[in-house]
Amino acid sequence: MSTRTAYRTCPLCEAVCGLEITLSGRDVVRVRGDRDDVFSRGFICPKGATLGDLDQDPDRLTGPLVRRDGVLTPATWDEAFAAVEAGLGRVAAEHGRESVALYFGNPNAHTLGGGLYLGALRKAIGTRNVYSAASVDQLPKHVSAGLMFGDPTAIPVPDLDRTDYLLMLGANPVESNGSLCTAPDFPGRLKALRARGGRLVVVDPRRTRTAALADRHLFIRPGTDPYLLLGIVHTLFAENLVAALDDRFAGVEELRVLAKEFTPSAMADVCGVPAEEIETLARELAAAETAVVYGRIGTSTAEFGTLTSWLVDVVTTLTGNLDRPGGGMFGAPPHGRTRWRKPFRTGRWSSRVRGLPEVIGELPVATLADEIRTPGDGQVRALVTVAGNPVLSTPDGPGLDAALETLDFMVSVDPYLNATTRRADVILPPPRILEAGHYDVALLGFAVRRVARYSPPVLAPLDGRPNEAQILAKLALIAAGQGVDADPALLDEGLIGAALAHAVADPTSPVHGRDAGELAAELTGADGTERRLDLMLRLGSYGDAFGARPGGLSLRRLLDAPHGLDLGPLEPALDALVATASGKVELAPAPIVADLARLRSGAGARRDGFVLVGRRNLRTNNSWSHNVRALAGGSNRCTLQMNTDDAARLGLAAGQEVWVRSRVGAVATVLEPSETIMPGVVSLPHGFGHGLPGTRQRVAEQTSGVNANTLTDPDLLDALSGTAVLNGIPVEVGAN
Ligand SMILES: Nc1nc2c(c(=O)[nH]1)N[C@H]1C(S)=C(S)[C@@H](COP(=O)(O)OP(=O)(O)OC[C@H]3O[C@@H](n4cnc5c(=O)[nH]c(N)nc54)[C@H](O)[C@@H]3O)O[C@H]1N2
Ligand SMILES: Nc1nc2c(c(=O)[nH]1)N[C@H]1C(S)=C(S)[C@@H](COP(=O)(O)OP(=O)(O)OC[C@H]3O[C@@H](n4cnc5c(=O)[nH]c(N)nc54)[C@H](O)[C@@H]3O)O[C@H]1N2
Ligand code: SF4
Ligand SMILES: [Mo]
Fold it and tell me: Torsion over CA of 396, 124, 144 and 169, rounded to 10 degrees?
């Protein structure tokens, strides 16, 4: 059979590589990096190269499942949507809307459905019980950005391609390919940084593959990054290295006073980085032509996640590197950035059981099980999960698993029958990856260049099954009481109409005063989702504004550019973006300054025994890539890494079975002594622990490995953001 080639963005990680996919009929026969892609220029990793295996995995569900007499049974789409209407309707009628909870998982950041329909779903369900993977990930960064810049989405991105000095903490982009910094071929960009004479310093309790690329690697005790960064801030002030900051910045004097007590020698004691190193880092950051600090998951899902996220941007700012080329810059999504209008604050409501504050409209997923288990008014009785696997990805996963079993109703939008979805009453699987269009609504705003790229569906869906966007639209319509027969396009047209009505009435809009109906008629696209995307692109900062800016972006222009459009490097954007009450960048926001008390009180608490951290492997993607045979094995194993000297001291040998115990649970796993991990620290990857009864992932089931979140503790949270502490868990280790 003849073959054809399609170009498409990889939906698996934040690097958004352009792929060249060769198909024979509906079969993927080869995937390569697209050499003509304007952003990734041919880069690809093993996950992208096996996208065909994932897409055609025989364990992917091809139609809905509905629980009948206790058993998940194949059903038609009509039957499945009717079961959702009945199930959600019953719970909401009996217990109120608050009794329905939502959990949105990570792949929502990589699908058009997740990008464009979760808002409507949430609104239609009308509950405050909203949870997501953000509270086991980047939520601290949203809080620090909200408090500093007034906009929780205004997260500075390291300008990788132009910086002279990069201080990286708690990230391993050679394996993860980067996060909150969308940069295909992150490893190549780091090599280029060094090749042009720049410097890379990596701070990590493990000597990672990224550390191996660096000029220097520094071990740090898990959870103590804010001490290191405060030592740097102290030195910057003490040695007069702080850059001249204009009146767009508030709080510099307050920082100077605050930092006094955090001397490098006191900080070295806590974090394990020598005082001279802390001082050297401060001097180097200040002396570099341009410099930037970048912190990721190891600093975020930690005891002081928000404080660390704040300090990362404080050091970038104090050294004069915020919002300038080579420093920390703000992304510029081609579909435009929605200006944050309300003054940012957290705690607009609180969780019922533990009283944990709301953050950007959600509650900490670490308390979802409490909300399900604890009787009373507002108890969660039903759950909707979209692209999430919280049983493997959130603290005390087994506890959550048991709680899910007690729900009155659960519906999951997910292609797999896995640890979480096996508890559902209805599973609605999205079709094959290649059957939906792709545009990175969430990620292009964190890209290191201004790029735009849309991939239309490569394959038509079989037998009229809905794509993910249509599934989510349908759920929203059902929750809004429109019934199972409502056409998903209704939702799109309603949203388009509302957005256009707003735009034509807005004096600052380039379409002010025009006729909304006429503009709607001009939109192109094969379906409502594409029409909405066209609208966003045309009204975005680079859009054609429906003819007002000829040559500007539109869906059609992106369709004509399958390798993407490069709009150039990032440009300063701070002035248009700051949305604090004062109109200035707040370098010492009150809630953060108050949390320093918690940090001071922790300073003496030196822990004996081991602390647990996580790790990622290039050939994994959280919990759901283990069903691809080509990616299993090799270094991709669920072992407990422990420093070689620690292992010798305990008389433990490589390959030996050991137990690991925390306050919450225990697992048995295999020991991997290693010189690359700091003494006193052990590491276990997350995402393993497949093969629970009732799941269907036949390859993953055969991989040995345990659920690392058996050990993580739902009571340990970063106070300001409610984010779970997944790195720095006290554990004991021993042999049977
Ligand atoms: N101990 C520990 N735990 C961690 C972490 C850690 O470092 N250590 N990391 C945390 C982080 S950063 C994250 S982001 C979370 C992730 O937490 P989750 O998002 O809850 O988990 P994932 O493993 O990403 O599971 C994704 C789910 O989406 C499904 N899926 C895949 N593609 C699609 C799609 O296109 N549509 C739909 N509807 N479903 C899809 C998969 O089958 C799977 O069920 O895990 C967190 N958990
Ligand atoms: N191959 C692959 N790529 C992925 C994923 C995947 O599962 N596999 N997941 C994706 C997701 S959801 C995300 S959020 C990103 C995450 O992307 P990264 O943040 O780059 O994630 P990791 O590779 O887990 O790197 C975190 C590092 O933090 C270190 N660390 C642990 N505790 C501490 C600490 O207290 N301080 C410091 N300084 N370091 C610490 C760990 O040793 C580890 O090397 O990756 C994404 N990309
Ligand atoms: S690095 Fe990420 S985006 Fe690129 S091919 Fe690999 S998984 Fe896909
Ligand atoms: Mo993540």
Answer: 50
Q: With residue 65 as reference, give the H or E element that holds it.
A: strand 65-68
241 and 143: one domain?
yes
Q: Which residue has the tokens 């390859």?
A: 699
Helices (H), 34-180: 46-49, 51-55, 77-95, 112-125, 139-149, 173-176
Task: Determine how many CB atoms are found less than 10 A away from the CB of residue 324.
Answer: 18
Q: Is 487 buried (19+), middle (13-18) or exposed (0-12) by CB count in 10 A?
A: middle
CA dihedral 149, 154, 157, 162 (to 10 degrees): -70
Atom of ligand 3 nearest to the CA of 46: 6
Residue numbers of the chain with a pLDDT score lower than 70: 603-607
Answer yes or no: is 345 within a domain: no
DSSP state of 106: G
Ligand nearest to the CA of 106: 1
Alpha helices by DSSP H, listed for 458-527, are 468-479, 488-505, 516-522
Ramachandran category for residue 202: left, alpha or beta (phi over 0 → left; psi -120 to 50 → alpha): beta
Distance CA 383, CA 413 (A): 11
The CATH number linked to 190 is: 3.40.228.10
Task: Determine the distance separating the centroid of ligand 4 and the alpha carbon of 177, expressed in angstroms.
Answer: 12
Calpha distance 33→17 (Å, rounded):
7
In angstroms, rounded to a whole number, what is the distance separating the alpha carbons of residues 89 and 60?
Answer: 28
Say if residue 305 is in the same domain as residue 156: yes
Q: Give the structural domain span for 649.
A: 608-735
Which pair of structure tokens corresponds to residue 385? Answer: 């999960």
**Ligand 1 binding pocket includes 389 (Cβ within 6 Å):** yes
Q: Measured between alpha carbons, how far is 88 from 91 in angstroms, rounded to an integer?
A: 5
> What b/e readout covers 520-542, taking b as 16+ CB neighbours within 10 angstroms?
beebebeebbbbbbbbbbbbbbb
Residues 727 and 650 in one domain: yes
Contact 553, 344 (CB under 8 A): no
Which residue's CA is the nearest one to ligand 2's atom 32? Answer: 298
* Six-digit token string for 14: 């934040």
Distance CA 69, CA 217 (A): 57
Residues with CB under 6 A from ligand 2: 13, 106, 137, 169-173, 175-177, 179, 203-206, 208, 220, 222-223, 225, 296-299, 302, 613-618, 620-622, 727-728
Ligand 3 geometric centre to CA of 175 (Å): 10
Q: Is residue 353 part of a domain?
A: no
Same domain, residue pair 234 and 154: yes
Composition of the chain by helix, strand, coil, percent to 5: 35, 20, 45
- Of 556, 559, 700, the residue nearest 623 (C-alpha): 700
Yes or no: say if 618 and 355 are a contact pair by the CB < 8 Å rule. no
Burial (CB count <10 Å: 0-12, 13-18, 19+), residue 547: middle
Locate 621 and state its tokens: 């993607």
Q: Which atom of ligand 3 is nearest to the CA of 9?
A: 3
Residues with CB under 6 A from ligand 3: 10, 12-13, 15-17, 44-45, 47-48, 177, 184
Centroid of ligand 1 to alpha carbon of 164 (angstroms): 34
Task: With H, G, I as helix, E, B as strand and everything else as coil, classify residue 467.
Answer: coil
* Residue 279 Cβ < 6 Å to ligand 1: no
**Residues present in the chain in total:** 736
Gap between the Cα atoms of 499 and 537, Å rounded: 13
Q: How far is the CA of 464 from the centre of ligand 2 (A)?
A: 39
As a dihedral over the C-alpha atoms of residue 575, residue 581, residue 585, residue 586, rounded to 10 degrees, the angle is: 180
Distance CA 112, CA 529 (A): 8
Q: Work out how many domains the chain is built from and give that number.
A: 3
Q: Is 730 helix (H, G, I), strand (E, B) or coil?
A: strand
Q: Which atom of ligand 1 is nearest to the CA of 712?
A: 1
**Residue 604: per-residue pLDDT:** 52
Residue owning tokens 């009785």: 381
